[in-house]
Amino acid sequence: METLTNTDHRWALVESRNHQADGEFVYAVKSTGIFCRPSCPSRRPRREMVEFYDNPALAQKAGYRACLRCAPAERNSQLAKIEAACRFIEQNLESTVSLDQIAAHVGLSPFHFQRLFKKRLGISPRQYQQAQRSGKFKQALHTEVRITDAIYEAGYGSSSRAYESGSDQLGMTPTAFRRNGQGMNISYTITSSPMGKLLIASTERGLCAVRFGDSDASLLRELQSDFHAANLQRRDSELKPAVASVKSLMAGMNLNGDSPLDIQGTAFQQRVWNALRQIPRGQTRSYTEVAQSIGSPKAVRAVANACASNPVALVVPCHRVVQSNGKLAGYRWGVERKAALLRKESQTGNVSAR
């Protein structure tokens, strides 16, 4: 089986002057001693003269200087501002900080900061603030004696605010979450697929589990373990549309619109999963590139752990994340399935599911 290496993928982005790849890596030209952004408008060098670096600092350490035309080193400054904004939000969860306050903290106008933050992380500063508070809320629910204590420990101003914002992140009410989902209704189905048995489960809000397995019994045991306090009901007919959508993804096709999800995770996991959904079909990213894309370049191991804990295969395409050298890393549902999925996606071109 042939797979695109990470350097082949990066070169393709450079050739197409892909603006979305800016900030993910830089390319350096041996003959000129200059490094550039992937989208640099300058004339493209010969492929054999190009080296790739994960960030401007590494290129500079190797002896290259920044291109004056595309100013790639400025991208590092943008990431630093996003990281500073995230830290500021995390340190002030006991109160709601406004967009103006966060932007002023990092020295940008509110309009420019909002656009930059959403472009880099895929969510707004307000959504990030809510996700961080929700993560703290989840922890407090397990440690505080009373739910009202957990509400104020997490920084919510009132119980109504916690139930309004917290439920969006938890996928259930705080009381239900504390009781391990007791009272929740989850529909599921198990079907055959070209890659083995496939389980799909959904709440009223959206898909909560999509996973591969070797048998109906093992898949059901896993679902019961994850949602042991919920009311599980097998509903094959009801979930036929979801099965069709997931199998289309398995066949390497795009879907028109995003499937609604009801998945629980920490604020960091949610950021990673959201970033994975931005990776175009037929392309891959390294764990380092994903970490950089969410503004946490040093959190490579944490990104790998978030990929491994992804509860919805295919819909959140963790199979598109590979090692920095382009080799396939571990996959929760087997490296063979990962290779097959990437091969399918590379073969189907721009076909969309209708």
Give an overview in words.
- With 354 residues, the chain is α/β, with parallel strands linked by helices.
- The protein folds into 4 domains: 6-71, DNA Methylphosphotriester Repair Domain (3-Layer(aba) Sandwich); 75-178, Homeodomain-like (Arc Repressor Mutant, subunit A, Orthogonal Bundle); 185-246, Double Stranded RNA Binding Domain (2-Layer Sandwich), CATH 3.30.160.70; 267-347, Arc Repressor Mutant, subunit A, CATH 1.10.10.
- The chain has 15 helices and 10 strands.
- The protein has helices spanning 6-15, 56-61, 73-90, 99-106, 110-121, 125-143, 147-153, 159-170, 174-178, 216-226, 240-250, 267-276, 287-293, 300-308, 335-347, and strands at 26-29, 34-36, 50-53, 65-66, 185-193, 196-202, 207-213, 231-234, 285-286, 321-322.
- Helix 3 (73-90) crosses helix 4 (99-106), helix 6 (125-143) runs antiparallel to helix 7 (147-153) and helix 13 packs across helix 14.
- It is globular.
What global shape is seen? globular
Strand content: 5-15%
SSE string, helix = H, strand = E?
HEEEHEHHHHHHHEEEHEHHEHHEH
For the biggest β-sheet, the strand order reads 3-1-2-4
The CATH topology of the largest domain turns out to be Arc Repressor Mutant, subunit A
Average pLDDT metric:
79
Helix content: 40-55%
CATH architectural arrangement of the largest domain? Orthogonal Bundle
